[in-house]
């Protein structure tokens, strides 16, 4: 159950999102609403979020093949560097 | 540095739930064989990507063990509770409060249950390798509302800690880190995730753990197969623990050791206990075959060699407790060599004159 008092960034609590980084590169993660996953732009890998639980074991990560989709998934206003 | 105390805990950890899982003795024996099957040898085969890193444990299998532990959990586990209690007790020894804490895999359930407001923790992040374990922890959250903790959940690997630098005040790991291939590396990552003057608290199993089972395995294998192969993980020795903390860069390192003896009704029950804790063999170069004959012989040897007068089977668990702080200017430091201005002789004379007067 989701407690009302918690601030949410999509499905994950903001407090958690603030301290999470990519397990491999230790670079920031970006939450993607559309795919409900955490994306590490540094290595181009997405990590699933299951029942509000982010799964950040390197093996769970999926390499993002489709660069285009990655850009479109990147909502307006968020910093995305062209690769 | 090392304080050793022997404790005896009655082996009443099992609940009815477990006996239902293995209804027939035959099934339990299969489980036993599976649990102790495995060849322990240091694997030097390097992973292509991770270059020279030595791989000893199969982390994927360990993950499955943790999944299974999540399904089996629920019975009383006095051993784990005592270790968690002992570890958390250390929080009362310092005046500092720790608002943000990370609880690493292992016995995180016991840590959350026993924390009882210690250390002034406000935000607790629970991390485990197994999604099922994290889900279990999350689903039982409502039982601990009185803790007044904001609890956050995530799945992560201790070897690849996904936590931002300088973001935590406390890292607790209860019986989990001994399964990491690169223990110093994991500890360094913990240190980086800590804020300056943050505390690292860990309990790991030490080399004396399950020495009886080691002996029984050896004898049974010699007898049945005419040769031996190590069947259990290499574990850290007490003398290594201090070095580990210093190597990981922790200040004011502290290590102490406790030995627990858990008493079981039978050797098979011991194996079941190991399974509920997710502590069964996960060596990379393990053999998946253990003859039923050898497994039964192991249980028989164990019982004939170590059984107490009342028929109970003792098993030793050695737990190494490690404490380390992330460096901070406010921490006490030893002065540099040769900077002393008073000789020891003068100090001695001073005390002697005090004694006389």
Automatic annotation (TrEMBL), chain A:
Q: Its family?
A: Belongs to the PREY family.
Lineage start: Eukaryota, Viridiplantae, Streptophyta, Embryophyta, Tracheophyta
Task: State the Gene3D superfamilies in the record.
Answer: 2.20.25.10
* Native organism: Dendrobium catenatum
Q: Which domain of life is it from?
A: Eukaryota
InterPro entries listed in its UniProt record:
Trm112-like (IPR005651)
Name of the protein this chain belongs to = Protein preY, mitochondrial
User: A Pfam family for this UniProt protein?
Assistant: Trm112p
Q: Look up the coiled coil feature and give its residue ranges.
A: none
Automatic annotation (TrEMBL), chain B:
GO molecular function, one example? S-adenosylmethionine-dependent methyltransferase activity
Q: Which Pfam families match?
A: Methyltransf_11 (PF08241)
> What GO cellular component term, any one, is given?
mitochondrion
- Keyword Transferase assigned to the entry: answer is yes
**Any GO BP:** methylation
Source domain of life:
Eukaryota
Give the record's keywords alphabetically. Methyltransferase, Transferase
Q: Which CDD domains match?
A: AdoMet_MTases (cd02440)
Tell me where in this chain the Methyltransferase type domain is found: 104-201
Query: What Gene3D superfamilies does this protein's entry cite?
Result: Vaccinia Virus protein VP39
Protein's UniProt keywords contain Transferase: yes
**Which PANTHER family does its entry note?**
ARGININE-HYDROXYLASE NDUFAF5, MITOCHONDRIAL
Task: Tell me the protein's name.
Answer: Methyltransferase
Query: Which taxonomic lineage does the organism of this UniProt entry have?
Result: Eukaryota, Viridiplantae, Streptophyta, Embryophyta, Tracheophyta
